[in-house]
Design a protein that fits this description.
The protein is an alpha/beta fold and 281 residues long. It is 40% helix and 16% strand. Bound molecules: guanosine-5'-triphosphate and magnesium ion.
């Protein structure tokens, strides 16, 4: 009998054995918005399909509902506020089963969440990077950078420097394979969008000027997202995430990359990303 709680790495083996299941690994400092992003996917499915996918089940429904509920309840319904992920919980996995509109094919996906304290500790101690060992299994690394801090010249420097340090550590410790897709998400873009266009551009340029294909010697996608803007700003809900979601779900096993059929899927996903690039200010 499944409890519906978040899964451990041992639990996910069962899911990964029964079908190919991409793992989307979230990293970033405390309060940058990792858990909110995961909870907002569950919230979105309460209102219907998301980016061409219907909700078809979850082994972590209780965990999803708990995170969503906490974020609404602790805010008294005025300004959402997700509860912090506990360090003691270690790595937690959230599971989604989806049915693709049209084809009807069923897909599964796992989101790996952990307290931002792990990220922060790994910056100062090489041995702490071993806490990210599960990253080796992941198809996608989502590195979230807090947009509310990046848009402010007084707080932006350490955010970028820490991201570079974290990636350096991951490369050194061989946590990040060449095949892992790296996406850097600038979170809380609803806050950034309240600034002038010049400030929004500066925020994006600040990240891409250092975290780019040339400096990292690997492909990287930088994208603004907003998972949970304040209540009442419904139009901005899941900004950016609607376009990224199909890329996450349609990720294909590396071993199949040479197959023409799979290439078509990859093309479809990059088409989606190109469309997405169009909305980056
Ligand atoms: N305005 C705005 N606030 C957000 C957004 N995403 C998250 N937040 C807020 O940022 C705070 C931290 O969000 P969390 O999702 O708990 O952050 P986390 O990265 O999981 O943090 P840890 O669990 O401590 O590592 C909460 O108060 C959220 O409501 C967003 O897109 N826009
Ligand atoms: Mg969290």
């Amino acid at each position: 009998m499944l409890s519906g709680k978040a899964l451990s790495v041992n639990d996910i083996k069962r899911i990964c054995r029964r079908s190919y299941t991409p793992i989307i690994f979230m990293a970033g400092e405390t309060a940058c918005g990792k858990t909110t992003l995961i909870a907002s996917l569950h919230d979105a499915f309460l209102f219907g399909p998301l980016s061409g996918f219907h909700f078809a089940g979850s082994e972590t429904l209780y965990a999803f509902e708990e995170r969503s509920f906490e974020s609404r309840a602790s805010s008294s319904g005025i300004e959402p506020d997700t509860a912090r992920t506990r360090y003691e919980n270690g790595q937690e996995y959230f599971h989604l089963q989806l049915r693709e509109q049209g084809s009807g094919s069923v897909k599964e996906v796992l989101f790996a969440d952990m307290s931002g304290e792990f990220y922060e500790r790994s910056l100062y101690s090489k041995s702490e990077v071993s806490q990210f060992k599960d990253l080796r299994r992941a198809q996608i690394l989502l590195l979230l950078l807090d947009g509310a801090k990046l848009v402010d010249p007084a707080t932006r420097q350490p955010i970028r420097a820490n991201a570079m340090q974290f990636l350096r550590r991951c490369f050194e410790e061989r946590m990040l394979s060449e095949d892992t897709i790296l996406q850097i998400l600038i979170s809380k873009w609803d806050i950034v969008r309240q600034r002038s266009q010049a400030e929004q551009d500066a925020c994006m340029n600040f990240v891409t000027s250092r975290l780019n294909e040339k400096s990292l010697a690997r492909q990287v996608q930088v994208a603004p997202v907003a998972s949970r803007p304040g209540i009442g700003r419904q139009s901005e809900k899941l900004f950016g995430i609607r376009d990224l979601f199909p890329i996450w779900v349609r990720t294909v096993p590396v071993a199949l990359h040479a197959s023409p059929k799979i290439d078509a899927q990859v093309d479809e996903a990059s088409g989606c990303y190109n469309k997405f690039k169009g909305i980056i200010p």
